[in-house]
Amino acid sequence: MTPLIRLDNLTVAYNRHPAVHHVSGAFASGSLTAIAGPNGAGKSTLLKAIMGELRPAEGRVEHRLGRAEFGYLPQAAEIDRRFPISVIDTVMLGAWKKTGAFGRIVPGEVKRAGEALSAVGLEGFGRRHVGSLSAGQFQRVLFARLLLQDAGIILLDEPFTAIDARTTRDLVDIVTRWHGEGRTV
Ligand code: ADP
Ligand code: MG
Predict the structure, then answer these.
(1) Are 26 and 115 in a shared domain?
(2) What is the pTM of this model?
(3) Which of 13, 31, 64 is the last residue in one of the domains?
(4) 3-class state of residue 176 by DSSP
C-alpha cells in the first residue's frame, strides 16, 4: 500500500542545529500513531515539518496534502491565551478552511460550532473568554475546533499533557472516534 505520508532521511534544523535527525518512516492512510520521546526530542518539530511549516535541512517529507487538509492541535505551551477572544470565536477558527480568512462566517457554522462545543462537554461556554478556562476546558475548546474543521489528517501535539483524568478520557474517546471514521491521526 502507498503510505499517505513518507519521511525520507528527514533532518530539520534550527539555525543549523538539527532537532530531527535522519528520520525515515511512513504513515498509512487511516493509521493512528503515537510519537513518544522526552522533552526536546523533536516531536513538535517533526509535526511542523510534516505540515510543511518547517523546511527540511536534509531529506524529504513526501505527501500530496495541502496545509488546510491537516487539523493541528498545537502544544499548549505554544498558545497565548491572553489574546482577547471568546470560546465560540476560537472554535469558529476551525471553519476558516471553508470560509477563508476574510470570508463571512455563515450562520450554519455558528450552529455547528455550538454543536462542537456540546460534543466536548462545554455547552453554554461560547461567550466565555478563553483566558478564563482551566487547562482541561481549553483543551476541550481546541478539540471542538478540530471537530468543526473536519480534517482527514489530524496532528495532536501533547494532547493529554496537564489535563485531568476525566478530560483525558473524553478526549481519547474523540480520538478513537476519529480513527474509527478512517481519519489519519
Ligand atoms: P519536543 O516537542 O520533543 O519537546 P521540540 O521539537 O520542541 O521537542 O524541540 C527539539 C529541539 O529543537 C530542542 O532542542 C529545542 O530546544 C529546539 N527548538 C525547538 N524550537 C526551536 C526554535 N523555534 N528555535 C530554536 N530551537 C528550537
Ligand atoms: Mg513539543
Answers:
(1) no
(2) 0.92
(3) 64
(4) helix
